[in-house]
Every structure is written in structure tokens, then in C-alpha cells.
Queue: 2 jobs
Job 1
Amino acid sequence: MARITALLFASLFLSPLSAASPTRASPLLASRQDTDNEGLHSLMLAAGKLFFGTATDVRYLDNKAHQAIVQNPNEFGMIVPENSQKWGELEKEDKGKVDFTNTDIIAAQAKGNGQLFRCHVLVWGAQLPSYVTSTSWTEKTLSDVLQAHITTTVTHFGSQCYSWDVVSEALSSSPDSNTLSTTSLFHQVLGASYIPFSFYWTSLAADPSSKLYYNDFNLELSPSKAQGAVDIVHLIRNYTSPTGEKNKARIDGIGLQSHLFVSSVPSLPSLTSTLELFTNLSLEVSFSELDISHSSLSPSPNATQIEQQEKDYMTVISACLAVKGCVGITVWGFSDKYSWVKDAFPGKGGGCLYDENMKNKGSWFAVAEVLRRAGVVRRGAVAVDASLDGEVAVAVNSTTTVEGEGGGGGGRDPDEAVRKAARSGELMRGVNGTELMVAAGEEVGDAQGKGQGVVNGARRWVVTGWGGWVVVMGWGFWGFWGILSS
Ligand SMILES: *[C@@H]1O[C@H](CO)[C@@H](O)[C@H](O)[C@H]1NC(C)=O
Ligand SMILES: *[C@@H]1O[C@H](CO)[C@@H](O)[C@H](O)[C@H]1NC(C)=O
Ligand SMILES: *[C@@H]1O[C@H](CO)[C@@H](O)[C@H](O)[C@H]1NC(C)=O
Ligand SMILES: *[C@@H]1O[C@H](CO)[C@@H](O)[C@H](O)[C@H]1NC(C)=O
Ligand SMILES: *[C@@H]1O[C@H](CO)[C@@H](O)[C@H](O)[C@H]1NC(C)=O
């Protein structure tokens, strides 16, 4: 049990800290500034991942509030065009009239903001140009047209694509099936070989640094479908090209779309095991089109359902954090105003991180909290957690927490902030009292620890390990205060 040795106020605690260990004082203050521009992507980077991204498109360009968020590289470090890069959008007119204008606008914006750009999607059975769906193809004529589409498109975007979704949704949509979808035009004319064929031609045309992905839904929910994706990986890797070349079709990653529903999100162990199924094949993985919708919006979701959505987001984010080969997370739009779900599934929705007025929802704070904690734990020994209503738990190491409330506002005596010390395994209090899974912190004695607490999105606490002591500094309504504990 952690012992609270001293409670110090204002200048009382600042001087011993800086006198005894001047090098410790400045990192504390610096850590305050570090996160002035904190956003989901910067938190994701601090947690050791590559990106937190979103889909967007030209049709939102005139919504200034939406654009301000999309173009904030601390919030989103990866951009993917929601629709404009699909084959049917690139060739709206006649065969051969390819128009990259809309995707180029999004790509240029991402580049200007220093954001990664994911290219989406080369070969998918839907949103095809009308000449593709209306022509009666032979194997030869369809292969030629597919190859030309791949080569032209991939060459146009070149090295700007962090990754390509080469093929999407090739697997049957019936649950618990590992078979290929036979409703796709490509499968009907070319059979299963259209998949490795597409990866082969993309491999030849793509920048060697671009990652080539297979992207599908329900992989995270259905073990058989996930196995179907494993079979696709083998199909690609075993492919012999028309000219007899082997090992030329490359696949680097699996995108798990993760269009999920509140209360139906797989457990954390189930999600991590699905991710590992793919990372064990030397592939990277990402949650590629995440949203977690309410299955009914009428009546409006109540507090329990909203909290469940926050927990569900935490579970998905935690799964990516737990698996080394999970490089990032991309949401399929961030605002309930524009989510595809309400069009595709009338009556369902509300699954995004921002509401219709571009304001962060509880789900956003939940995601930020999980990421923030992962970053803190990664950086050092001490983690502090504060829920939105002002409760705080200080995790000294994996087995000790100090819990309390107050301090952040409302004029409560910060004395109460550490009124209780408790052992609580690896669980700490999270957003509004929900329990969070948290990686274990390390021993405090190495003086490497650093942590922070955030109440209503504003930083209120900073913690550091210092010569075997834990130093907690806070500010807010009560002014500055500090706690020392061993
Ligand atoms: C956690 O810290 C407490 C004291 O703060 C200590 O007694 C305990 O041994 C530590 N546990 C581990 C696993 O390091
Ligand atoms: C080729 O396919 C078989 C299964 O059909 C699989 O066991 C093998 O690993 C595959 N080869 C590669 C390189 O993926
Ligand atoms: C992935 O590989 C690890 C190490 O070999 C193994 O323990 C784990 O069970 C594998 N996971 C899956 C889902 O195949
Ligand atoms: C919230 O709504 C769900 C679904 O309608 C219902 O089962 C649950 O009892 C409600 N909870 C509260 C606290 O109203
Ligand atoms: C947390 O609880 C407070 C009331 O204590 C409420 O106002 C707030 O909306 C809740 N936050 C979330 C994310 O549910």
C-alpha cells in the first residue's frame, strides 16, 4: 500500500524538488507543454504506433468545422479517401476516361499537412464504373481491363500511398463462412485467381515502400472468415504469374474494417488473437474502417449505452495497442453527421468519435484516455488516471493504486484527492468509473516515471517518479498543490 508521506502546497513543494533534483523539475514542466497540441494521432505516436487516421472526402470540403479537424495533423495522421478513389468514381464517364481530380485534392491536402495517405481501393466488387458492370467479359478482356486499371491508378499516385487496399471484401458475407464471395463480377469471370492476379500487378506497379493490403469486414467477428483471409494470403504468396514467375505477388497487411455495434464488440483476448493470426504470418494489421454504432437510435441512446460505447472503443483500441504488428487505427469518418452507417442502415448510427456538431463525444475521451495511458506507461513507471467527473487514481506500479477524488475543481480540498490507497491489480478507474485495462507500470524507484491526469479534457495532474518517491503536482481551482509519497 502506498504511503502518503507529505502533502505540500505551492512554493513549499517546488523548492525541495528543484533543489534536490533540478533536472527533474524541468521535464515536469516540459511535459505540460508537450501535450498542448495533443490529439488522437499524437497520442497514438506517443503510444508507439504509426497513425490514428480518418476517412474523409471532397464532399465535406465546405464544412469548415469538419475541415479544421481533418486538417489537424495532431488529431489525424492518416487520411483515406472515403469514396473518390474507388474505380466507379475514377471512371464516371466512358471507359478510358479516368479522372483523378477529387482524390488528388484529398491527397494534396494530406501531403500539405504532413499526414500519411492510404489509397483505397483498387479491386472491389461494388462501386464499379457502369461499363464494367454492363459489358459481357471474357477472361482475357476482363483481365486486361483490370490490369490496366491497376497499373494506371497505382502509377498515378506513386510513392504517396503509405498503403494500397488492393482487394476488398473478396470473402463471402455470410457469417461463419471462409469461402470466397461468388457474387463479385471478378470471381464470376476470373475465379479466385483475380485476387493474386491483382496483388501481382499492384506489386509490379507500386512503390516498393507502399504496403499492400487485403481489407475486409467481420474478420474481427468471425474466426472462419479470418481463416478465409489467411487462405487468401497463401493464395497470393503461392501465385505463379502468367509468365511463370513465382514469389512476385506481395501482400504486406490485413485491414480489419471493424464496422461494429455497441455491445457486440469481441472481447479483448479474442481481438488480439485475431490480430496475431495475421501478424504471425509476418503481416502488419490495422483497424481500417472503425466505427461502433448504436443498433437503434430511437429512442436516443441512454447513459448506459453511451458508456458501453466508450468501453467498446477502449477494447478495440487496447487490442491494437497490445499487438506489436498493429500499426494504426483509422475511423471511417469521425462525425455522426456524415457517417455512412445512417444511410446504409437506417435507424442505426451514432458510432463516431464526434457528434453532428463536430464536438468530441464520450467515445473520443475514452479513446484519448486509453492512448494517453499507453503513452504514459510506455514512457515510464507512473501512470495517473482521472475520470471525467474528477475522480483520480494514481497507479504507482502494477499492483498499487492511490485513489481519491477532488482537486480538479469545485473547491474540494485536495487533501481528499488521496484519501484512500488501495491495491487493485491491473485495473484502474477510467472514464466515469468504468474499468480500464492498463499495462503494468514499472517500479518507481528508478525515477524515470512520468504521468498525468486529465479532467474534462484539460490536464490537471502531473506525476513523476523521483528517487524512490512519487511526486504529484496539480493545478486547477485550488491553485497549485503537490503530494509526495513513497
Ligand atoms: C509496487 O509498489 C509497492 C510500494 O509502492 C511495493 O511494495 C511493491 O513491491 C511494488 N510491486 C511491484 C510488483 O513492484
Ligand atoms: C502455399 O499454400 C499452402 C497451403 O495451401 C501453405 O501451407 C503455404 O504456406 C503457402 N505458401 C506460402 C509461401 O504462403
Ligand atoms: C502467434 O504466435 C505465437 C508465438 O508463436 C503463439 O503463441 C500464438 O498462439 C499465435 N497466435 C495465433 C492466433 O496464431
Ligand atoms: C438503456 O436502454 C437499454 C436498451 O433499450 C435498456 O435495456 C436499458 O435498461 C436502458 N438503461 C437505462 C439505465 O435506462
Ligand atoms: C461523465 O459523467 C458526468 C456526470 O458525472 C456527465 O456529465 C458526463 O457526460 C459523463 N461523461 C461521459 C463521457 O459519459
Job 2
Amino acid sequence: MLLSEFAGNAEVLFELSEVMKKNVLPHALLIEGAKGTGKTTLAGIIAQYCVCSSNEQQPCGHCPDCAKAQKGIHPDILVADGEQTGGLNIESIRNIRSSAYIKPNEARQKVYLLLHCEKMLPAAQNAFLKVLEEPPENVTFVMTAVSATSLLQTIRSRTRIISLYPAAVEEAVGFLESRYPDKERSELEKAAQSSGGNIDLAIELLEGKLEEARGLAVEIMQAIPLSTEYRLLQLLYQAVQNRALAVRVLDALCEVVTECVKASVGGRTNLTEAATIAAKMTQKRLFLLQEKIINARSILNVNVNLNCYGTWLCAELRNQ
Ligand SMILES: [Zn+2]
């Protein structure tokens, strides 16, 4: 991917492209932003820039170095991932420290991608600080973290911090259109809206198992009027395992409850189970449920604790 294909964050991209044109990239960068805002993707673009061997504007995207970078096999791009066991522990930082002073293999410089630095413990951070204090020549460090504040002030002061935000819905739609040229625009708009411009989440929504979410939503509706709350709680915990799934299930739940309301007033519905579910509840309760579910869906746009959310939602749906 190239900078021009990155979704949203226009100011950051402009600044970075200027830096790249002038060839004045700092030797240490820290990209911060919520999950799904594209930190790793941007780190990858910067790494590609560092190794690109084209005479044109870098990264060109098609020279042999860019190709290797895109495939993740460039010998001068080294990745340490805090999400992997020992990925950013003190030993791995020491390894980086000793290898960073060795010349690059093929490219004009070496790049270290330190991903998920929020997982890096203070001892490892201190070890890394020593490298930053005496930066090796021809080496660029690109770190990513959910928040820059998870790193020591002494590290932060030695890096250029880049903050990423979710793309605006319209920007996200534009990005999704180029990635999914065959999908309907309305489907892409829905995914961009539901994800609040978070590209990873939007992709999960588009590629995710919408059928699975709908099935779970039907089961949830069936469990609401049962005499004990056990089944409902079980299903809701399953639904809130992760944010992408929770969003999908709540979206589906909004649709399913609407179908049940339609069935209860004798309207036509395309959901086979709607009539049976509606028969188990009063019309008044169904209307109330619809209101509660729509409200619960909107709360999910705020960053809620998913476990608390599951318990709260169970009480909300059971309460008549
Ligand atoms: Zn290139």
C-alpha cells in the first residue's frame, strides 16, 4: 500500500509525504491510535519508503525492494511484535541493540518495526532507550502503540509522534470502494457507518459472518422470554467476545426485533422465526424491546467495557 491509498488522516499523510519528499524522515517514529486505525499499515508504508530503491518518488510500490517489503520478506525490515510472547521483552530489545549497528543487507538503511509497544515493560523500554540515545547510522525505528503515553517520557521525547484517528465515514467509504469494487455502495456505507470509520472493523463487518450474527440475534430474541436468564446471558457473552462481533450482533438484533414487531402487528416479514418469537411476548413488550435494542446499539459506538455491557444488556432485555 502507498500513502495515497491510506484512509483518512489527511494532515498526517501530507506531513509524512513532505518529509519523505525532502528525505528528512526522523530516525525514530511512534505511531499511536486506537485498534483498527491503520498503525501497522502506516508503519509498513514507512518501512517500504526506507528500503525503496527507485529513483522516482519513494516508496514507488513496484521496485524489487518495495515488492519484498510488501510480501514481508525484506531482509532489512525487522519486526518485533509485543503481542507475540517475548516479542518486545528485554532479551529481544538486546538483540535489536546488537544487530542495529550492523550494516543493512540490501537497502540503504535498516528498519525496525516495533509493534504493540503498549506491551513493552519498563525494563525493556529502558533498554530500548539506550539505542535511541545513541542511534545507529542508517537505521529507522518505527513503533506503534494504542497510546504514546504507555511509553516512558524519555522515549517519547526522542521520537516523532504520529497520531492516527478513525477516518471520516465518507473517507472510509472511498477506501472500501477501492478495496471492494464489486460490493454495493449501500453495503459499504453501512459498514463504514457501523464501524464509525474504523477501517479494520469495517472490513470485518464486510467480510465477517453476517449470517452467524443474525443466527445469534434470533437465538437472543428467543431467549428473552424464557423463565431464567441463564440462556440469554450465555448468548450475550458469546456475542460480546469482541467488538466486531458485538457490533454485527447488535445490528442484526435491531433488524430481528423489527421483524418481530412487524409480525406482531400482522405485517409481512421475511424472518421465518418472527411470528413464533412475537407470539411469546406482548406487543407492548416488543415495542419496548425495540427501543431498548436501538439504544443499546448506539451505546456500543462509545468505547464500552464489553463484559459489563453484556451483563447490562441482559438485565435491560429481561426487564419489562
Ligand atoms: Zn520502491
